[in-house]
Amino acid sequence: MSLSSKGNAISTAGVLISLGIIYGDIGTSPLYVMKAIIGDAPISEALVYGGISCVFWTLTLQTTLKYVLLTLQADNNGEGGIFSLYTLIRRKANWLIVPAMVGGAALLADGIITPPISVSSAIEGLRILYPDIPTVPIVLAILTGLFLMQSFGTEIVGKAFGPIMLLWFTMLGSLGAVSLLHHPEILQALNPYYAYNLLANYPNGFWLLGAVFLCTTGAEALYSDLGHCGRPNIRLSWTFVKLSLLLNYLGQGAWLMTQEGSLLTENPFYGLMPSWFLLFGITIATIAAIIASQALVSGSFTLISEAIRLNLWPKVKLVYPTNLKGQLYVPSINWLLWLGCVGVVLYFREAEHMEAAYGLAITMAMLSTTILMSYYLYTKCKSKVLVSVFLAVYLAIELGFLVANLSKFPHGGWVSVLIGGLLLAVMYIWINAYSIKRSFTEYVRLNNYLPALKELSSDETIPKYTTHLVFMTSAANPKEIESKIIYSIFQKRPKRADIYWFIHVETTDQPYTTEYKVRHMAEDDVIRIDFKLGFRVEQRINLFFRTVVEELVENGEVDITSRYHSLSKQHLIGDFRFVVLEKFLSYENDLPFSKRLIMEWYFNLKQFATSESKWFGLDSSSVKVEKVPLVIMPAKLPQLKRVMA
Q1: What is the three-class DSSP state of 488?
Q2: Where would I find the H helices in 540-581?
Q3: Quick one: residue 204, left, alpha or beta (phi over 0 = left, psi -120 to 50 = alpha)?
Q4: The architecture CATH gives domain 14-434
Q5: Contact 305, 536 (CB under 8 A)
Q6: Contact assessment for residue 238 and residue 222, using Cβ atoms and an 8 Å cutoff
Q7: How far is it, in rounded angstroms, from Cα 96 to Cα 497?
Q8: Facing residues of 533 across strands?
Q9: What is the pLDDT of residue 7?
Q10: How far apart are CA 208 and CA 50, in angstroms?
């Protein structure tokens, strides 16, 4: 069964995959939303009806209208997410990097908060059957197992996610529908009047928005996973998901009304389940929570890989565990997330305590998306009125959620702010250090040195360094080269070679670009290759370079046979050696305090990053790393006075 339209396809498999990898977070929200809304207050019609009304209109305005209908339009060659949205508009205004960084840091913080609260909420259901069961060790064991399996990839496990989540949402809808039959009056809660009444008239009603917001925290995943599932499949599957969620929320509301006047003593989600169904329901809830956590972890890996391409994060090791498109594993981030999750579980211990830390970070991410999306809409439709309406409506909604969530700050919200702040600090340091380095990198005209390179290549009085000498260059202009490379070739140690190769890598705003261009700067002596690679393409430069050289040989454009007379007669290929220049902060700098602090932290962080040679996928046996001092602002020396001996 498939309906296709120019690359966009609606298929049974596509919808099933969407259920499996997109809706884990938002799909497990019924585990804790109504419990958080009721809290310690007596159960009343105003609170229950108002809470469900707020949930319904939040899912409609925030998730359906903003994300499913509008934001999914902003696809970058089929890819989504806050950094993909930023790449679509970043050349329009420099300041847009700020909301992109804030949103990215907030999403990473969410990846640390979501797994603990989802798994804890599910496991704590076991207390209904076993009141004294210690849940913290079980939660830690599940989370540890989740992070341990990341290095193997999720290709096999992912195939099971869709059917399991289909079962989960079917269970949500069925339990809700059965409960709804006992109190059908709860359907009146869909009237927005009840939401208004709760927020305006109920004591401290406005502050309940912090709990209401938990129902839409997974909306960002809809957009982030656009590339995995496609817009049509996401939109179609959301119809089923939203119906299932609403039925469950309404069912919980119907159950709560049977307890009117009393205090909440158990999670209304489990209150819907008959006793004989509890163990099965808890098991499915736990698996759904693990899938929700998996989606957040995978999303964090993708987010970091995009941040690296945008020079917002250190170049840490990226692993591609399977050949499946989009499969990615980032060891450093995996264990950073694990440590964060363990810390959250040990600090809060209970899901209801984690609710205070949950929501604040993702509100910042949604605000950032609203700002970037407004700019994107303006570049597309050029209507200031429509863009202003969109911006005003969603700033009002999300600022309301933000203010309400701030009430959680002293009770645990500070944890998500601290995590997000630390991640944002890393991005700030890295992008600023990159700008400082780039502004002080000196380039020279390559043409001025071509005659000298040809002479050096044929100067037999100098021992040959290698047959083919390859330098990685950051010079975007093919007519230029870093002065440090010229210094390395001619002065540090004269490097005589038959052919000098200069390789430049440009990361494009498109995800899967794989293009290259060859320029013969000096026939048979100096060749430059420019690679254009998408921000989701693994930079395996060693293999790419070998492929290009083989093609050049086949076309007769270059002869890579060794020029040693004895070897040339045997038609033996010469050796290739890469030289990578790695900079270190020179003691000769006299930097202002702010720049010195940024650069010192940059080089401290760089110790945990992957080396340039490994990042570009170069063969370590043929790579020479040369340390180059980075002099940004030379220190002013006192005037020396010579005295006679």
Answers
A1: helix
A2: 541-554, 565-568
A3: left
A4: Up-down Bundle (1.20)
A5: yes
A6: yes
A7: 45
A8: 507, 514
A9: 40
A10: 10
**Cα(284)–Cα(278) distance, integer angstroms:** 10
- Give pLDDT tens digits for 410-468: 877 888 888 889 999 999 998 988 888 777 778 889 999 999 999 998 888 888 888 88
Reported as a single tens digit per residue, the pLDDT across 276-317 is 898 888 889 888 888 888 777 877 887 888 888 888 888 888
Distance of alpha carbon 107 from alpha carbon 84, whole angstroms: 14
Q: Which long-range contacts (CB under 8 A, 24 or more apart) does 262-267 make?
A: 262/42, 262/43, 263/40, 263/41, 263/42, 263/43, 264/35, 264/38, 264/39, 264/40, 264/43, 266/128, 267/31, 267/32, 267/35, 267/121, 267/124, 267/125
Q: Hey, what amino acid is at 231?
A: R
Number of neighbours of residue 545 by Cβ within 10 angstroms: 22
Q: 524 — alpha (psi -120 to 50), left (phi > 0) or beta?
A: left
Average per-residue pLDDT in the chain? Answer: 83
Query: Alpha-carbon distance 287 to 173, whole Å?
Result: 17
Residue 60 has pLDDT above 90, yes or no: yes
Rounded to whole angstroms, how far apart are CA atoms 35 and 320? 40
Q: How far apart are CA 588 and CA 634, in angstroms?
A: 5
Q: What residues does 508 pair with on adjacent strands?
A: 534
Query: Mean pLDDT throughout 375-397?
Result: 88
Rounded distance, CA 326 to CA 294, Å?
A: 14
Written in H, E and C, the secondary structure of 174-211 is: HHHHHHHCCCHHHHHHHCHHHHHHHHHHCCCCHHHHHH
Domain ranges of the chain: 14-434, 443-630
Task: Give me the residue label for tokens 């205004």.
Answer: 93
* Percent of the chain's residues with pLDDT above 70: 90
Nearest to 272 by CA among 299, 294, 249, 302: 249
CB atoms within 10 A of CB 632: 17
Q: How far is the first Cα of the chain from the last one, in angstroms, to the nearest whole number?
A: 97
Beta strands in 249-380 (DSSP E): none
Three-class secondary structure of residue 448 per DSSP: helix
> Among 381, 390, 429, 376, which residue's Cα sits nearest to residue 602?
429
For residue 500, list its beta bridge partners.
Answer: 469, 526
Q: SS3 for 55? A: helix
Give the model's pLDDT for residue 4. Answer: 36
Cα dihedral sign for 541, 547, 553, 555? negative
Cβ-in-10-Å burial (0-12, 13-18, 19+) of 2 comes to exposed
pLDDT digits (tens, 9 = 90+) for 216-270: 887 887 787 776 667 888 888 899 999 999 999 999 999 999 888 888 888 899 8
CA distances from 58 to 62, 217, 310, 403 (A): 5, 11, 33, 16
CA distances to 188, 194, 202, 253, 573 from 185, rounded to whole Å, are: 6, 13, 20, 10, 83
Residue 139 in 3-state DSSP? helix
Contact 28, 285 (CB under 8 A): yes
H/E stretch holding 384 reads helix 384-406
Q: CB neighbours of 89 closer than 8 A, spacing ≥ 6?
A: 96, 372, 375, 376, 379
Tokens 């995959």 -> residue: 17
Phi, psi of 190 (to 5 degrees): -70, -15
Residue type, 279: L
